[in-house]
């Protein structure tokens, strides 16, 4: 039932290499996506930033009110957390509909399938960069100064993006074959939103803290959020995300190599 | 030397409906429906190749043991009735469908041209669309820059190139798409049924441009129902019927065979 030839592996390596190497094209396509979405609107992509800003203010205020945190502590916490949470989950959600929505291109032009994955990652990084302006504003208002941990922020971001990209790729392949999967993924991510310390702090869970500790997304968020807030992610955060990335990609690669050539037939 | 060689190519399409595409079907409920094989009486065959589902799966044998050798200078007209596998073969040549068995080897870069307007955006200007389409075609920034004047001159769109293409008429849009797609120099060109629209003056100019475009092409595979069109552009022919290649050779021989099997 599951057989994998060395030719399939070679082709998958080639696909991955070509997809990553044509980063100029995927970046261009990502910008076009964003331009297309906001063409003929006056404020354009600023709408992204505005809606994110409003969401953060509401959530930050609620977090302070519900969980008894000070506004100065909770608003930057919520803002940084949500910035990266939307980045991560949107890449996975977009990944799930990746090949179905790009099917017009896939059946007409021979292009590496990982090119479209790169496009999704770029697009969401661009969106996150827009949203980041809100964080800068909030950090300035509440005088949040990043600690020395900031030096490892960029490597953390790269690691998390690599990690999320395998999740998105698996979601993309499985969803092309089984059209229920994107809806399932959406549901799971909505559930995980509550199980990730975004609106609250992990300490506040007391003896229930294990529910966030066993959630991989907690660690991904920590890698990206803590340095901004002046803290340092724990070694545990690093190890968990690193392990998920390495083992996840090994499994994903075998899976991708096996089913890559079938994807176009499932469209 | 450019070449395109295929050996015993098989391409099959699994048939999925809304049931088999959803999870519960694979999880077992679909077994109940297994007995109902709606399509079994046609040219279809029950089989399982990909191993996602153990249930009997209906497949269409779109290409059934196709072999051919095409070399530089061959301009091949691909003939066949609807559903004979022309488009599937073109896409297989382009590397979009990987055959389930058999091999295809292209010596040279294969360039598929199916939908002239692929990647074009109604709300973007003509110039932006040239860039977008050019990138989709795999052209470098320099190549696109070089082609800009040529495209502007051919399309005669002038200031319209600065306008969103939703303001264009169908003919203007076609002109633009056609001009961009023919700005390249392909090694191996795979072309599906060319569109013929626009006013007479444009058609004459388009023909001249097409002639120039195809003369730069090393290998051409062109699928069409129109024998006169194939006579104009091709020197060889291939005839497909129900996924099998039933005639290969000089165009006139293949056309004769095509007309034999075409009911009047």
The portion of residues forming beta strands of chain A comes to under 5%
Shape of chain B: globular
Task: Please trace the helix and strand order of chain B, writing H or E for each element.
Answer: EHHEEEHEEHHHEHEHEEH
Cα gyration radius of chain A (Å): 19 Å
Q: First CA to last CA of chain A: what distance?
A: 22 Å
SSE class of chain A:
mainly alpha
For the report, how would you describe the main beta sheet of chain A?
Answer: none
For this structure, the quaternary state is: heterodimer
Share of residues in helices of chain A:
over 70%
Q: Which spans of chain B have pLDDT < 50 for at least 5 consecutive residues?
A: 32-55
Q: Give the beta-strand count of chain A.
A: 0
Biggest interface reads: A-B, 29 and 29 residues
Structure, briefly:
The complex is a heterodimer of chains A (267) and B (264). Chain A has helices spanning 6-21, 23-38, 46-67, 71-96, 98-101, 103-106, 113-141, 153-177, 181-195, 210-213, 216-225, 235-259, 263-266. Chain A is mainly α.
Note down, in words, how this protein is organized.
The complex is a heterodimer of chains A (267) and B (264). Chain A has helices at 6-21, 23-38, 46-67, 71-96, 98-101, 103-106, 113-141, 153-177, 181-195, 210-213, 216-225, 235-259, 263-266. Chain A has 267 residues and is mainly alpha-helical. Chain A has one domain (6-31, 42-266). The longest helix of chain A is centred in the middle third of the chain and has 29 residues, at 113-141. Chain A is globular. The mean pLDDT of chain A is 91. Chain B is α/β, with parallel strands linked by helices and 264 residues long. Chain B has a domain at 113-261: Rossmann fold, CATH 3.40.50.300. Chain B is 33% helix and 27% strand. Chain B contains nine helices and ten strands. In chain B, the strands form two sheets. Chain B has a six-stranded mixed sheet, with helices on both faces. Mean pLDDT of chain B is 80; it is low at 32-55. The A-B interface holds A 1-2, 11, 25, 28-29, 32, 35-36, 39-40, 104-110, 177-181, 259, 261-262, 264-266 and B 13-14, 16, 18, 21-23, 26, 50-52, 91, 94-98, 110, 112, 114-115, 118-119, 121, 123-124, 132, 135-136.
